[in-house]
């Protein structure tokens, strides 16, 4: 996983502030890219992830604050955060637009939201055909993940004034998640 996303994460997370909010951190795959001593507010609804999150926090010297809530309903104040991270999560959340709107709400003006997501392939492509074909079993097996979600359009609809999105094909061995986007949004 670090082979696939390590370089992008280093670039996107560089110069992050002392406090970072992460939506859906899972077992804490992103902690190795945060500076030691960072305070991480982890919005992770799945309690089965929490033990590994704590282990990762110990390993990487992160001050962890877990919130067992969903990204669509974040209990942080408006304009209170500088930096929000979200990797491979918008494919799974029940309402991605609401989740992004919440991220925008909690960010301070000039606050930064960084993301890496697998997304829907181009129309009429072989990858798109495979994504649609495998969607149901994949959704069931990978706990609600959508292979063919058009997250780029959702981001574009979310009203961030500055939005930098790079589309690319990853080297993932899992064909349905080859089409990906990475980038950042800045609250105006
Ligand atoms: C595929 S994992 C990604 C974990 C991690 N971000 C990474 O890059 O390895 C998706 C994570 O999103 C979490 N998740 C699912 N629905 C969510 C929601 N509505 N709000 C926040 N997190 C959610 C899951 O519990 C899981 O930890």
Can you describe this structure?
By secondary structure, the protein is an alpha/beta fold. It has one domain (2-121, 149-186): Vaccinia Virus protein VP39 (Rossmann fold, 3-Layer(aba) Sandwich). 30% of the residues lie in helices and 27% in strands. It is built from five helices and seven strands, in the order αββαββαβααββ. It has a seven-stranded mixed sheet with strand order 3-2-1-4-5-7-6, sandwiched between helices. α3 (96-106) links the parallel β4 (81-87) and β5 (107-118). The longest helix has 16 residues, at 126-141. The protein is globular, with a radius of gyration of 16 Å. The site of S-adenosylmethionine has 19 residues, from loops.
Per CATH, what is the topology? Rossmann fold
The termini sit apart by 33 Å
* Tally of strands: 7
Main sheet specs: 7 strands, mixed
CATH architectural designation: 3-Layer(aba) Sandwich
Number of domains: 1
Uncertain residue segments: none
Count of helical stretches: 5
Describe the strand arrangement of the main beta sheet, using strand numbers: 3-2-1-4-5-7-6
Structural class, judged by helices and strands? alpha/beta
Mean pLDDT score, rounded?
A: 97
Task: Evaluate the radius of gyration.
Answer: 16 Å
What share of the residues does DSSP label as strand, in percent? 25-35%
CATH class: Alpha Beta
Topology, please?
Blueprint: H1 2-13, E1 19-23, E2 39-43, H2 50-60, E3 63-67, E4 81-87, H3 96-106, E5 107-118, H4 126-141, H5 151-157, E6 162-169, E7 179-186
This protein binds S-adenosylmethionine.
């Amino acid at each position: 996983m670090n082979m696939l996303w390590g370089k992008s994460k280093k670039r996107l997370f560089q110069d992050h502030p002392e406090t970072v909010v992460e939506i859906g951190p899972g077992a804490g795959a992103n902690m190795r890219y945060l500076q030691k001593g960072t305070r991480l507010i982890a919005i992770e609804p799945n309690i089965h992830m929490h033990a590994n999150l704590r282990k990762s926090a110990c390993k990487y010297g992160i001050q962890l604050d877990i919130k067992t809530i969903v990204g669509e309903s974040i209990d942080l104040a408006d304009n209170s955060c500088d930096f929000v991270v979200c990797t491979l999560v918008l494919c799974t959340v029940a309402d991605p637009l609401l989740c992004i709107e919440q991220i925008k709400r909690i960010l301070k003006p000039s606050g930064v939201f960084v993301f890496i997501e697998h997304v829907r392939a181009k129309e009429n492509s072989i990858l798109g055909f495979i994504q649609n074909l495998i969607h149901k079993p994949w959704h069931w097996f990978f706990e609600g993940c959508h292979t063919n979600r058009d997250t780029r359009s959702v981001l574009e609809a979310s009203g961030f004034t500055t939005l930098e999105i790079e589309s690319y094909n990853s080297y993932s061995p899992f064909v349905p998640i080859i089409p990906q986007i990475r980038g950042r949004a800045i609250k105006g």
